[in-house]
Amino acid sequence: MPAEIKTHYRACNLCEAICGLEIKTQGDQVISIKGDKQDPLSRGYICPKGTAMQDIYTDPDRLRQPVKRSGDKWETISWDEAFETVAERIVAVQEQHGADSVAFFAGNPNVHNYGSMTHASVLRKAVQTKIHFSATSLDQLPHHLTSYTMYGHQSLIPIPDIDHTNYMLIIGGNPLASNGSIMTVPDVPKRLKAIQQHGGRFIVIDPRRSETAEIADQHLFIRPGTDAYLLMAMIHTLFAEDLVNTGHLSDLLSEIDDIRTACQPFTPELAEQRTGIAAEQVRQLARDMATIEGAVCYGRMGVSVQVFGTLCQWAIQIINILTNSLDVRGGMMLSSPAFGYVKPGESGAGHFAAFHSRVSGLPEFAGELPATVMAEEMLTEGEGQIRALITTAGNPVLSAPNGQQMDAALSGLDFMVCVDFYINETTQHADIILPPTSALEHDHYDIAFHRLAVHNTARFNEAVFEPAADSKHDWEIFNQLGLAIAARKGMTLKPLPSPDLLIDMGIQRGPYSAAAGHRLELTLDKIKQHPHGLDIGPLEPSLRERLCTADSKIHLLADYLLQDIARLAETGAPTKADELLLIGRRHIRSNNSWMHNSHRLVKGKPRWQLLMHPDDLAARQLQDQAQVRIESRVGAVETQVLASDEVMPGVVSLPHGWGHKREGVSLGIAVEQDGVSCNDLTDNKLIDQASGNAALNGVPVRVVAI
Ligand SMILES: Nc1nc2c(c(=O)[nH]1)N[C@H]1C(S)=C(S)[C@@H](COP(=O)(O)OP(=O)(O)OC[C@H]3O[C@@H](n4cnc5c(=O)[nH]c(N)nc54)[C@H](O)[C@@H]3O)O[C@H]1N2
Ligand SMILES: Nc1nc2c(c(=O)[nH]1)N[C@H]1C(S)=C(S)[C@@H](COP(=O)(O)OP(=O)(O)OC[C@H]3O[C@@H](n4cnc5c(=O)[nH]c(N)nc54)[C@H](O)[C@@H]3O)O[C@H]1N2
Ligand code: SF4
Ligand SMILES: [Mo]
């Protein structure tokens, strides 16, 4: 008798869209994965990566047991031996070189895995180092610093009310490929079309005519890294044309005149020179933001991960504030999650520049140093040099700038342990790899992305499959490794209970709990009764009650921002004659660096080529589809060029996360793919000065024939 066919409901945790999935299984086989039509947030939407969840589960290259490196080979070991060895080595390094000689790097999937979010603290308490890095500083750090500065908490991040907006200005985001970021917005194609159907518009500003730009009402090319001029000129225009309306937030704002003064030099004419967008067009964008009710300005990777990332995110907030678009329907509002609702007195607000990195003197934020300095902190001798590394769900060799330097730095460490289930470009340098269960083997509640969603929902799902025999979840690894290290240090440390219990406690203290007097009286058990997700309702204005600043006001300015505005004023026109500016590119079938081992995702035409405008090809006498050499300050790669008028002249685009074809990587399908790593070109010294965030977009490169 064949096993019974079962239907499971589970949110996808690969990207920020958290789509509901309907998964049919038979025994230990997945039969089908479809969109869950009853999920109130995703409404049946799914992308090709959701279907590929099963490939992670079945992947023969995925580690199921801890492995230890001996020479070029990997040897399977028991969990006990693995934990004991790691504890012994970490403690030995710390005894010899000090507590801060051990560092952490936490990668992106931690944020998509609730047990990693709840339990990382146990391991951190045991290791007790001050040196932490994560993918945050390759990504959204400017958003956190801006929210910390203006609203008093790094996680009070306003989200576009996309379902009710009449005008959406999207700068440096490509939700049609990414499915949204710092905006959890599954089913985004339909949601964008709905803006147009109800008579609204959306505009895209991007150096590439992206998939999103393709369906927008208007697309404007912009020279990479120059968005700050555009945004400052929009603010300038709001003042110059007397369009400022701070509406219901007026009593919370003081420094309006200082903003007027600071933006004075940034005229639309200057913006035109720098960005390539006509001055009159810049004025029109400001006028539309000011005069259309329910308008919103939103910016993502393209404006965060560039040389003026923080200034851009700050200016976007200011534009929303000055046009009465913050905390109003159709503008930007805070999500109100059942778990992790930020209100005054909440922990984790953040802190900034409490200490600086040893070699380059970059500031910490919320206890983390910028990932751009991680390699130099390993390679530069002296007191405080990093000698050992713990990575959790991260692949910095492919994801951080100057990948060659990172590769060299990792290979010189005294000890490295990775909590990861693949032997990839980064983990191949480990002494020990501790593999957690895969997503379908554990339960799930999304901690991070309900907090950033365009509509309030809550969803808990049970594991689809029993975890494999003798396997451990990420949170169990954190607990047990933490305890092993603590024991060696003679510390007493308590393990944390399972994540569902912690989530339940948080929900019962949250805004929809009985304790808060809410009619839903939410508990985790109640949420479990809605396996498709519980609809809590649309975003509502709530900023006033939730401001975490000491004086409960919005802080429009800070010294570091004024310094950065001065830096912008002093910055000249970019690029030398033969230089091109390199930007990234995401594709719906790719997920950062780690989903290229799924045949169903990588099959078909290649997606890793360098896009270049035909005029730029002609100027260099290059042929379409030729092999070219791309050179930057830090490195060079060779790859195929593809002629495309999608990118503006002077700009080339290469996606990140490729470059698997190298010695030591055990990913059977990924190593067959031809792409190179974009981050072998991006520059660890090219940063957003204000925050230390990497500037992975707008990197000067030269492209030459081979
Ligand atoms: N040039 C350029 N570089 C970029 C970007 C860009 O746009 N351009 N984007 C940046 C951004 S936004 C980000 S977020 C970073 C991402 O940078 P990283 O977080 O360093 O990289 P990922 O590719 O997400 O790698 C994730 C790793 O986690 C492992 N993993 C997956 N799921 C789990 C799990 O559940 N548990 C554990 N323990 N491990 C797991 C995978 O095997 C893989 O090794 O890259 C950044 N780098
Ligand atoms: N399919 C897929 N989805 C993903 C991911 C993935 O790898 N694949 N990664 C996830 C992660 S970790 C993140 S952080 C999000 C990112 O989500 P998004 O920010 O929406 O993703 P990107 O596609 O990187 O969009 C950035 C856009 O900025 C443009 N750009 C580059 N430089 C500039 C500039 O200087 N100015 C302006 N105005 N635009 C510029 C690029 O051309 C690109 O279209 O996506 C998430 N979703
Ligand atoms: S958009 Fe795709 S990868 Fe992202 S959550 Fe939905 S199904 Fe998963
Ligand atoms: Mo990211």
Enumerate the strands of the largest sheet in spatial order, edge to edge or round the barrel. 5-4-18-17-16-6-7
Mean pLDDT: 97
**What's the CATH class of the largest domain, please?**
Alpha Beta
Query: What is the first-to-last residue Cα distance?
Result: 61 Å
Poorly predicted runs of 5 or more residues: none
- Percent helix: 25-40%
Question: Looking at CATH, which topology of the largest domain would you report?
Answer: Rossmann fold
In DSSP terms, counting alpha (H) and pi (I) runs of 4 or more, how many helices?
24
- What percent of residues are in strands? 15-25%
Ligands bound, unique: ligand MGD, iron/sulfur cluster, molybdenum atom
Radius of gyration, taken over Cα atoms and rounded to an integer in Å:
25 Å
For the record, the count of structural domains works out to 4
Which architecture of the largest domain would the CATH scheme give at its second level? 3-Layer(aba) Sandwich
In total, the number of strands is 28
Pairing-aware structural class of the strands and helices?
Answer: alpha/beta
Overall shape: globular
Description of the molecule:
The chain is 30% helix and 17% strand. The model has no long low-confidence stretch (mean pLDDT 97). The protein folds into four domains: 5-58, Phosphorylase Kinase, domain 1; 67-139 and 345-537, 3-Layer(aba) Sandwich (Rossmann fold); 141-338 and 543-567, Dimethylsulfoxide Reductase, domain 2; 572-705, Barwin-like endoglucanases (Beta Barrel), CATH 2.40.40. The chain has 706 residues and is an alpha/beta fold. The strands form eight sheets. Strands 5-4-18-17-16-6-7 form a seven-stranded mixed sheet, with helices on one face. It has a six-stranded mixed β-barrel with strand order 23-27-24-26-25-28. A four-stranded parallel sheet has the order 11-10-9-12, sandwiched between helices. The structure holds ligand MGD (2 copies), iron/sulfur cluster and molybdenum atom. One ligand MGD binds at residues 107-109, 113, 135, 138-139, 301, 392-396, 399, 419-422, 424, 436, 474, 584, 592-594, 656-657, 678-679, 682, 696.
